[in-house]
Design goal:
Shape: globular
Number of helices: 3
Strand order of the largest sheet: 1-2-4-3-5
Mean pLDDT: 95
Radius of gyration: 13 Å
Largest sheet: 5 strands, mixed
Number of strands: 5
């Protein structure tokens, strides 16, 4: 069982699958995320953490995405804060970064599930 006290700026419930309640986040990912949060110096609102393969977002994909590996989350952020967090995330070794900065529900997807860098927009 994961010791969530290692991550003082996050709570387990933030990363629970919204479909089934499971949480299979990997400690190595959370350590990197905690390091990013410490450097960022502001709270980070997790809008999506772990997703089980049966999660409605995942089930329509040809193959499950990085959220199902416990190596990804989405952080609600916009404007200048989004740019700052993006730069810091790149420096902290997040290799998969998705950017949604239009309309309601703006966020950055941050993952370490891939071995090479990839940035995309939604």
């Amino acid at each position: 069982m994961m010791d969530w006290d290692q991550f003082p700026n996050f709570e387990k419930r933030e990363f629970d699958c919204s479909h089934c309640g499971k949480n299979e986040m990997k400690p190595e990912y959370l350590h990197r995320l905690q390091s990013l949060r410490t450097i960022y110096g502001k709270s980070m609102r997790i809008t999506s953490g772990y997703r089980c393969p049966q999660h409605p977002i995942e089930i329509v994909k040809s193959e499950p995405g990085p959220h199902t590996t416990g190596l990804a989350c989405d952080v609600g952020v916009e404007g200048a804060d989004a740019h700052k967090l993006l730069k810091l995330a790149l420096n902290q070794g997040f290799m998969g970064i998705g950017i949604q900065q239009k309309g309601n529900g703006r966020f950055l997807h941050l993952d370490t599930a891939i071995e090479y860098g990839r940035i995309w927009s939604y």
